[in-house]
Each structure stands twice: as structure tokens, then as C-alpha cells.
Amino acid sequence: MKHRLCLTGLILTAFLLLTSAQVQATRIKDLADIEGVRDNQLMGYGLVIGLNGTGDDTTKSVFTKQAIVNMVKRMGVAMTADVFKQMKTKNIAAVMVTAQMPPFVRPGSAIDILVSSIGDSSSLSGGTLLMTPLKGPDGNTYAVAQGPLAGGGIAFGGKGAKAQKNFPTSGRVTGGAIIERAVNFAMPPGGDLLYQLRETDFTTVARMTEAINSHFGTGTAHSMDSRSVKVQKPSGFKGDLVTFISALERIDVDPDRPARIVVNERTGTIVMGQDIRISTVAVSHGNLNLIITDSAEITQPNPLSAGTTTVTPKTTVSAVEEKGNLVVLQMGVNIGEIARALNAIGVTPRDLIAIFQAIKAAGALQGELVVL
User: What's the pLDDT score for residue 10?
Assistant: First the structure.
């Protein structure tokens, strides 16, 4: 009976260890990208029409008025100088259109676009983007955008009060751009691939190389540096590079994570990695509150006297220092113990930032402290 219980316990322990390893493992496709296979940024200048009086003030936004004139001229409408001076349109807004062009897209494919106001328009809700060419860094047109905007923001009110939800000066058009030109890119004909990690780390590169060689055979992958891994297509995948990439990117790798604390002093945000360790250190926390109160002491004369009322300012200053708390953090404590110990003395996020900076300065923080 005892032998069975011990065997059951060993099996359960092994199962938990395997499950933990599987949970920590990450696919190669989530860690690295093939060199050259990336998105391309596109941008264009356009006009949004159909706004309910929330467009640009054409008397101030000169570029909006000029864009309207160029548009109506292309439509064959003559524009005289008097009409140009008197033109006041509040249902049109000048916008910048941006998009991410995915790799391997072909002409005729549709991509999403983001439309943002660049003038003094108060809202783009209900507007329609006119045909806008989207260009790349080389100046060539790769897509053409057009369509009704879908925005998640509203703004309304008057001079005395205004209510706003989210940001009404930007919106999206799902599938609003059609690809007209493809980016010339071809996979290596020899089948040699260069994978680049999204986060540079020697240990992760070594583990990724070992996992690929264990799956496809020794010599398939070679580590180039702390970011790059060169992979050669095995002989069994001749003429079928897509299948090889699919099988390779499904391989699980346990990435190594740096011991790092990231703090943002502006927002009071703190993010700590699980490998953070602290040497034995004592932390004391206490606040000094300085209270200054201004008051006035009024002295009035007696009834029927010729005196005047006098006002004497009075200032009261008091200092209150809270009781200090001293907490000892033992060597090698993990993130959970750090959080519990610091929460026990009632520190705020901004106090935590100051404490971590002091611990790092004392040389007791075994990790990197990043201040945004």
C-alpha cells in the first residue's frame, strides 16, 4: 500500500512538472520573426466629408481650403477668386490616413486604415473619407483608401459645458484600403532562413537552436549572435518551404527572461519580473506632513465709537510625522514576498518607486531597474 502511494505521488509530481514546463514554453512564432517578413507603413493626406458642422474652420485651416479647391478642380468645377475668399465649409475636415501593409499581400487585398484629424475639427463622427492614395517611404502609391468612418468617441456641448467620451477626432475604416501595388519580396530559394528574436537574449537563442536541432536533426540551426538563428531547410522538405516553416514555428521553447523592474513615475505603474531577487536589506517608511493654515482675526470697535474694524492675518504651521516602519527583506525573497512585505507597511506606488530606487542604490537589488 505504501509502495502504491509513493508511486502515485511520483507520477503526480512528474505530471505537475511536465505541465509547468508546457505552460512556460512558448512557440517560436511568438518569439522570433523571419528576416524581411514584416509590415510596411503607409500614409496619405485626405478629406473627410459629411460632418455635421464639426469640420475644420476654413478661415483658419488654410491647407483644408486649398485641398477642397484642388478636389473640386479635379472634378471639373471652376473656382474663381471671389468664391475662394467667401468659401466657409464646416462639414469637411483634413485628415492623415495611416495603415500597416502586411507582408505577402497582393493587389486587390483589403487592409484596415486609421484616420486622424490634423486641423481644428472637433469631431469626425459620421464622416466619409474620400479617395486617398497611401504612399510608402519611397513615394510610390501602394494602396487607395475610402469609406465611412467608425469612431468610438463622441463630443457635444456648448460654451458653458462640454461632454466627451474617448477621442472623436480619429476613427477607423475596416477594410477601407485596397492594395494596388505589392512589395517585392521572395523567400530564399535555397531554403536558408534567418530568424531574429524580438527580445535579445543569448540563453533564449541557445535554447531555440537546441530545440530546432532536436526536432529536425543536428546541424539544422546555428546561433549567429544574441538575436539571430540561421536555419537550413532539411532535405526532407525539398520544394515545400511553407510546410517546413509551419512545423518549425510550432516548436516550443522556454525563453529566458531578464530580472527587471519597470517603473513609470508619471503614472505610478510598477511591473516586476518573476526572477527579481533582493539581498538582505531593511526598509523604513514614514511620511512627514506639513500643514499650513491661513486665517484672519477680526477686531471690531465698541458700539457708537469712532473706531474702525481691523483684520489681522494669522498663519498656523504644524508638522505631523507618521510613525516609521522598519521591514527586513531577507536574502533571496521572490516577487510575492516583496509585494506582501511592502504592502504591510502601507506604501503607495510612488513610495514603492522611491524604495526600489534606494534598494538599487544600496546594491541589494539583483536585477535591472528601468525608469520610464
Answer: 42
CB of 65 closer than 8 Å to CB of 73: no
* DSSP secondary structure letters along 116-163: EE-SS-S--TT-EEEEEEEE-TTS-EEEEEEEE-B-S-EEEE-SS-EE
Q: Which residues make Cβ contacts (< 8 Å) with residue 209, sequence separation at least 6?
A: 221, 222, 223, 229
pLDDT at 276: 78
Count the helix, strand and coil residues of the chain and give each as a percent rounded to the nearest 5.
25, 35, 40
Residues of the chain with pLDDT under 70: 1-24, 81, 83-85, 152-166, 239, 283-296, 304-306, 311, 313-347
φ, ψ for residue 260, nearest 5 deg: -145, 140
Calpha distance 85→81 (Å, rounded): 6
Distances (CA, A) of 304 to 37, 301, 307: 95, 9, 9
Answer whether 363's CB lies under 8 Å from 325's CB.
Answer: no
Nine-digit cell string for 102: 502586411
Give the DSSP per-residue string, 256-288: ----EEEEETTTTEEEE-TT-EE-SEEEEE--E
Q: How many helices (H) and strands (E) does the chain have?
A: 7, 23
Domains of the chain: 40-152+165-179 (no CATH), 186-253 (3.30.70), 261-371 (no CATH)
Taking the C-alpha atoms of residue 48 and residue 127, their distance in angstroms, rounded to an integer, is 6
Our CA angle for 7, 8, 10, nearest 5°, is 65
**Cβ-contact 146, 48 below 8 angstroms:** no
Pair type for strands 193-197 and 228-231: antiparallel
CB 204 within 8 A of CB 221: no
Distances (CA, A) of 64 to 39, 42, 47, 313: 30, 21, 8, 57
Instruction: Report the predicted TM-score, pTM, of the whole model to 2 decimal places.
Output: 0.68
CA distance 115 to 150: 10
What 8-state DSSP symbol labels residue 54? -
